[in-house]
Design brief:
It is a single chain. By secondary structure, the chain is α+β, with helices and mostly antiparallel strands. The protein has two domains: 88 residues, Orthogonal Bundle (Helix Hairpins), CATH 1.10.287; 167 residues, Jelly Rolls (Sandwich). The protein is 40% helix and 32% strand. The protein has a 17-stranded mixed beta sheet that branches.
Length: 303
């Protein structure tokens, strides 16, 4: 005798394929979203560089005009055989020429930056236009940025997917932006910073380690349902619930400032966790523990 599926079993048969599809689609959609965010950021950087080039061109035009005026005054002073006026005009011409040289150098630097960021946009098209699996994406912002692979060697191309075990290093005067694989956050790495991607598969969550330097966690960083978002330093582990915060780390101390939401910070030495709420900051010192909570300092004077 043929037994027909019950209503419950039929319902399960309907939902099972859908759940299987979702388990494939969610990581893919997150990767696509991450790549698109990184591409949009690269476009923003290119726009800023283009505006800088325009300003540099305007400055060069003004410098060229100043030089023409100074040269005209020098000619008139020479025709009048006015020694005092000639001396003043010659000094003005020399100063104008120096200003024009500075303006030309500034324009060259601005054009080089624009060319670099144009290449970044073009390379980002590879990540947004392909179906390759994407981990966290690192986008150089300025200066020297390196990616150290798990085997200790350095990757020739910085822009691209940062895999678990890879460390992003910024030199003096450099910055980079890291986009987490599941789209749950963006991290700005300031100069003289080393940040390692410990875990980031787009499924279980994100774990990173700020070995030293300064990181700003942007765009509403949050731990999604069933996932973790954790940041470690040499002295503490920071669990994120949904926030914007900043971390400065060294071998001996960790500073955490929170502008939105709340984070839970646990000392690796085993001390009880403390919560740091929006508008406050707190420092942990090895050998001393957590210092008292303080109001969050203005943006330009934090750490």
């Amino acid at each position: 005798m043929l037994t027909l599926p019950t209503t419950t079993s039929r319902s399960r048969l309907v939902w099972l394929p859908l759940l299987l599809c979702l388990s494939f689609y969610v990581p893919f959609a997150a990767a696509e979203s991450t790549a698109q965010k990184a591409h949009d950021f690269a476009l923003e950087l290119r726009g800023q560089a283009a505006a800088t080039v325009q300003k540099a061109q305007d400055r060069l035009s003004v410098a060229e005009s100043d030089l023409r005026v100074a040269q005209a005054v020098l000619r008139d002073s020479t025709l009048a055989n006015d020694r005092e006026a000639i001396d003043i005009s010659e000094a003005a011409v020399a100063e104008a020429r120096l200003g024009m040289s500075d303006a030309r150098n500034l324009l060259k630097r601005a054009q080089a930056l624009l060319a670099q960021r144009e290449r970044t946009v073009q390379e980002m098209a590879f990540w947004t236009g392909s179906n390759r699996p994407v981990g966290a994406l690192v986008v150089p912002v300025e200066g020297e940025v390196r990616v150290r692979q798990a085997d200790g060697s350095y990757r020739s191309t910085v822009l691209g997917s940062a895999q678990a075990g890879e460390r992003i290093e910024t030199a003096a005067g450099s910055k980079a932006r890291l986009f987490v694989a599941d789209g749950s956050g963006e991290i700005q790495l300031n100069e003289n910073t080393a940040f390692t991607v410990v875990e980031d598969d787009g499924v279980s969550g994100f774990v990173g380690e700020l070995e030293y330097g300064y990181g700003r966690f942007l765009k509403g960083v949050k731990a999604k349902l069933g996932k973790k978002f954790q940041v470690r330093t040499p002295s503490v582990a920071i669990a994120v619930r949904g926030t914007r915060f900043e971390v400065a780390a060294s071998a001996e101390s960790t500073w955490v400032g929170v502008s939105e939401g709340v984070v839970s910070v646990t000392a690796l030495a085993g001390e009880q966790a403390v919560e740091i709420a929006a508008g406050t900051q707190r420092r942990y010192l090895k050998g001393q523990g957590f210092l008292p909570s303080e109001p969050l300092a203005p943006a330009g004077s934090r750490q």
